[in-house]
Amino acid sequence: MSNKNTIGKTKRSTDNMIDDAIAQQNDWLANRRSYARRFLKTLNIFARPTTKETTQPQPAAKPADNKSRNGVLRSYWFPILCVFLVLLILIWVMFIRTSNPQRVVIVPVVPDAVSQQLTINDAPAFDIVRIEQNGNIVIAGRWAPNQNVSIKMNNKIVATVRTNADGEFVYAPQKPLPAGNYTLSLVGADANAKSSNKVFLYISEQGYENSLSLLMTPRGSTILQAPTMVYGGDLTVSKIDYLESGRVIVTGDAMPRLRVSLWLDDKYMGFARVSDYRHYGLGADLGKLESGREYKLGVRLHDGDGRTIANIEHKFTMPEMTGDDDTFYTVRRGDCLWIIARNFMRRGILFSMIADRNHIENPDLIFPKQKLQIPVVNK
pLDDT digit string (tens) for 143-156? Predict the structure, then answer.
């Protein structure tokens, strides 16, 4: 008996638990529906007007219509308000805003760089290339405002700077350049915007006082910074030849890409251009000179405009005349047979005679330190 009663009580207790769970679930669903209904009624947006249920149809009456309209307005007031605001905005945009000419078009602010760049036809240009006392250089120039400009040194880009609102830029490397020759040019942001002029920079081993910078234009060279003092190996006479024909040939070294003029006892001999390798040579017919007599050779260094920026005087004793068999010339970098023939033989077209004498198959191919025998041509 006790076992049966225990089993029966257990079964009834399980049924009660299931019934309680179903009841709780129904209560939760009822509460959720009630909460949702109250939430929608609170918003009062899309709820329809509530009417009392009647068992018999009521005849239509005017007061009932008014009450119905008021209920609709209260229920749909928010959508009606949104539609009304949209209509007001459309009316303002289509009629009121377009009627004011000051607000029809908004003109964007165009940067000065764009507006001025359209009027600039020139490429980037140099203003200053200066060598400082500490050996550093300063490069200043101009182009279109607020644009990038690349600085090329010996055909290699070394820096890119930006112009200011006035179209000016400055570049100053922190380390001094080693002694030597440098060719500077400018390239704009557009690869086709290249400077038409270049700057040739010579950094002397003697220091900034001997250095110079030249602006090279299609019309010639203009010196930007002249040396304040010339000494050492930047203006020298290395050799003087005196031929039986009465022709004097002077060779030496000077600052590259300038010109030298020579004077013998105040008698003008002529001028010669200095090569990129700092060599020059000049031949002139001076007539009969006395061997063993002391003469004064003056060498003047000129800029692109012909101004004398340095000069030296070289006193020497005229050597014995050299004959056809003992006239030799040692080739230097930048030489060519045409110039050698012009200095020694008066006319460059006679270079073939030098080539034949020295068994040179290709007259365009000679080498530094190559020793050439020069055939002498009399007048």
Answer: 888 888 899 999 89
Label residues 271-298 b or e (16+ Cβ within 10 Å = b): ebebbeebbbbbbbeeeeeeeeeebebb
pTM listed for this prediction: 0.55
Could you tell me the strand order of the sheet in which 308-317 lies? Answer: 267-273, 259-264, 294-302, 308-317
C-alpha closest to that of 130 among 215, 196, 217: 215
Instruction: Please name the residue ranges forming H helices in 54-106.
Output: 62-75, 77-91
Burial class (CB in 10 A: 0-12, 13-18, 19+), 176: middle
Q: Is 159 strand, coil or helix?
A: strand
Structure confidence by residue, pLDDT tens digits, 98-115: 544 443 333 333 344 333
Residue at token pair 């056809």:
324
Domains in the chain, ordered, with CATH? 121-225 (2.60.40.10), 235-373 (2.60.40.10)
Distance CA 288, CA 158 (A): 55
